Amino acid sequence: MDKLSNNQIAWRAAQDIADGAYVNLGIGFPEKVAQFQPAGREAIFHTENGILNFGEAPPPGQEDWDIINAGKKAVTIRPGTAFFHHADSFAMVRGGHLDVAILGAYEVAETGDLANWSTGPKGVPAVGGAMDLVHGAKRVAVITEHVTKDGKPKLVKRCSLPLTGVACVTRVYTSLAVIDIEGGRFVLREKLPTLSLEALQAVTGAELLVPGPVADLIVPEV
Amino acid sequence: MDKLSNNQIAWRAAQDIADGAYVNLGIGFPEKVAQFQPAGREAIFHTENGILNFGEAPPPGQEDWDIINAGKKAVTIRPGTAFFHHADSFAMVRGGHLDVAILGAYEVAETGDLANWSTGPKGVPAVGGAMDLVHGAKRVAVITEHVTKDGKPKLVKRCSLPLTGVACVTRVYTSLAVIDIEGGRFVLREKLPTLSLEALQAVTGAELLVPGPVADLIVPEV
Amino acid sequence: MDKTVADLATAVAGIEDGMTVMIGGFGGAGAPIELIHALIDRYRATGHPTDLTVVNNNAGNGHVGLAALIEAGMVKKLICSFPRSADPVVFTELYLAGRIELELVPQGTLAERIRAGGAGIPAFYTPTSYGTDLAKGKPVEEFDGRPYVRERWLKADAALVKAEAADSYGNLVYRAAARNFNPLMCMAAREAIVQVSRIVPPGGLDPEAIVTPGIFVQKVVAVADPHQEEDLNRANAAYPLEA
Amino acid sequence: MDKTVADLATAVAGIEDGMTVMIGGFGGAGAPIELIHALIDRYRATGHPTDLTVVNNNAGNGHVGLAALIEAGMVKKLICSFPRSADPVVFTELYLAGRIELELVPQGTLAERIRAGGAGIPAFYTPTSYGTDLAKGKPVEEFDGRPYVRERWLKADAALVKAEAADSYGNLVYRAAARNFNPLMCMAAREAIVQVSRIVPPGGLDPEAIVTPGIFVQKVVAVADPHQEEDLNRANAAYPLEA
């Protein structure tokens, strides 16, 4: 089955970020979204550990380990950067000041529930800022492969893994489609043009509603 | 009856402020305490509106109206002054970081209840920071005339005026005596040497316990 | 990304009838006099906005700034800690005549409620006001054997704020104790409207010294030489000011 | 009034068995490595302090700093949001062997609980963790139709904190994102112990740029050229460090 690369998923998600938006990107895969911000549109990136308006990674060897992102990777400052402590940082998150948070997922339910912090009881549990980020941002979006490595749906009726948040996700960008969550249901907005609705439904764990036109999900090689 | 002047009451209260203490002085009469800090002992004064370690009033005509105390009088900055916003300022108050708050009073009850913000339902009510200051400081002391202008006791069994706080005052410096509040009772510590215990009791609205020695309250002319 | 607007009238254009408006300042320090006066100008020209609920520590002084806003009849309700001042005649007369509502809040609780509104904390417990008239009707709960009063967050449709300098991202620094409620109100308002003495380019503020990060600010307007309420009142000024 | 102490050993001398100790830093940024190592030195010499409850965002990395404190066997319980790292072997092994307790707290809730501890707010409501395993057993209440979880303040007997500079009053400034939890922990601890790269005389810090006012600080010690955890781990260092 044709599918988008991670870079392509990130590119698609970046197209929906408005000029001037305040954005938090989850650690790992979502960090890629920053690379694809459309020309002429400025996003201001927030990291939980206390930087607003940071820049890209420094060249290797030029890291300043006091200037890092939530994933503890080195970033840089820009004209207009601000530093602040953790309580102020999460006031930005919880207080509804971010325009968009883009996160990874193990599972997303049609209810908007998200599971992205724990794969179950074994090992050392670690939550970080995930449970905070799903609340407060005006729009919480997920980027993800459409199915697991074993081919199981990641978009499901109800999450089987421990929840990160309840009814929090409003849009999912997958390797196959763009799907909104509205009224507790998946609503298909875009799909790969080579993919039939039936084939997409077959790899999706809950019904896809199609109340309006479905656009072709066309993404450049990036 | 002999009694201390307001300056003398303030002087006596100042003698109990330890070197290095963080102190908030209520607006009005308590502000006088700052003038009588004993030599060699440094107090650091906090004002609710966001200054720590401010200095005395500037000469007339040299006021900077952005550098004021809670009573909206001009003060000055010193080496070591810090500015902060109101939430941080009241975190200092409520969070137990002040060593001493010295406040005025309409009435103090033997329970430690304080009434100092409202004389009743008429007029415009105004509370300011009074209700916050009675909580959090490690020691909340009151300076006051021992009786009202009409000669009525200000130290009472139960307050008749609207309360500022419950069981908050631990020491009262009056024009006649120094009285601790312990276990919901007034405990006499010092009185004017010219004043008999009986005479003091007669102008006090609740029983004065005398479990130990009572020192002479001797204050210089100031 | 440029949050600066051309003039005061544009800055306050989004404030409508019935809104809750936070106004920074402690007495005159940090009071956004010019923004308030711009709002009065609009009311005098159009009859709007009116029926405002205003959040401020005080109730204005003399006949300028907040006192003038109240005097113009634009304020339905005031939420504040200390509605007294050297010259509080405007508020006092309306209040005693029953023509303006007052919600009296202890100063630290007022600050914390505003901060909570900005930080997404709908309610919190405080020892302040326990056992007093100002706690009446509020839930009380014991923690570790001590009683506390539950208070709700406070949010606003708009905040009028005074700062010393801004960059175009809306990052702010303040001046001395003119800071007071201003940073908190930026956090708690849907639209934080800020007058500053100077606007600098991005990078013109030390990122370590920024007090209000730009995410909390929506509009910035330059007022190069702002009035100080205390000076106006000492000159017995009334708004509109004599030229 | 001088809060500076002569050396690291003096700085950490008040920390006793069974205490709750907050340790600043987010990963290595802002981690008070030298204060932690001084505490380990005391333990190696005297067998104390032990049975500590430590509050930090993470669980240490490699074999220095917090990881070395855990490895030395001084920590009974960890309260943190993210006990994973590039090299979390020390905590992971003890945890999986059931030899260290873990209280997992969402990062923003952790920050707010610490701030609440410092601000005298015994409990507050947050949307974070509602409906998840981490909210189990906690009171839930609806405000304006939305459910929130009630969380308690977090306080400590001591905090180990890293800042950039201090004056003798304990006023502090930080460096970049090394700020993180450090200012909050100063507020929430009975004794905030701070290592700084430099101590300046009163007046040596801009009063507008002070992040932690000295009222929140009890001890300051100079560590002119502090280690950066990231550098130590890239060099595969372990505490005690080779000379």
Describe the overall structure.
The complex is a heterotetramer, with 2 copies of chain A (222 residues) and 2 copies of chain C (243 residues). Chain A has 222 residues and is of the alpha/beta class. Helix content of chain A is 13%, strand content 27%. In chain A, the strands form 2 sheets. In chain A, strands 1, 2, 3, 4, 5, 8, 10, 11, 12, 13 and 14 form an 11-stranded mixed β-sheet that branches. Chain A has a 3-stranded mixed β-sheet with strand order 7-6-9, with no helix packed on it. In chain A, a hairpin with a 2-residue loop joins strand 10 and strand 11. Chain A starts with 5 loop residues before the first helix and ends in a 6-residue tail after the last strand. In chain A, 54% of the residues are buried. Chain C is α/β, with parallel strands linked by helices and 243 residues long. Chain C has a single domain, classed as Glutaconate Coenzyme A-transferase (3-Layer(aba) Sandwich), CATH 3.40.1080. Chain C has 7 helices and 11 strands. Chains in contact: A-C, A-D, B-C, B-D, C-D. Chains A and D meet through helix 2 and helix 3 of A and helix 4, helix 5, helix 6 and helix 7 of D.
Compact description:
The complex is a heterotetramer, with two copies of chain A (222 residues) and two copies of chain C (243 residues). Helix content of chain A is 13%, strand content 27%. Chain A is of the alpha/beta class.
Q: Which fold name corresponds to the CATH topology of chain A?
A: Glutaconate Coenzyme A-transferase
CATH class of chain C: Alpha Beta
- Could you give the distance between the termini of chain A? 19 Å
Greatest interface and its participating residue counts = A-D, 41 and 55 residues
N-to-C SSE string of chain C, H for helix and E for strand: HEHEHEHEHEEEEEHEEH
CATH superfamily of chain C: Glutaconate Coenzyme A-transferase
How many domain regions of chain C?
Answer: 1
Query: Which percent range describes the beta-strand content of chain C?
Result: 25-35%
Q: Outline of chain C, from the CA principal axes?
A: globular
- Tell me the number of helical segments of chain A per DSSP (H or I, 4 or more residues long): 4
CATH topology term of chain C: Glutaconate Coenzyme A-transferase
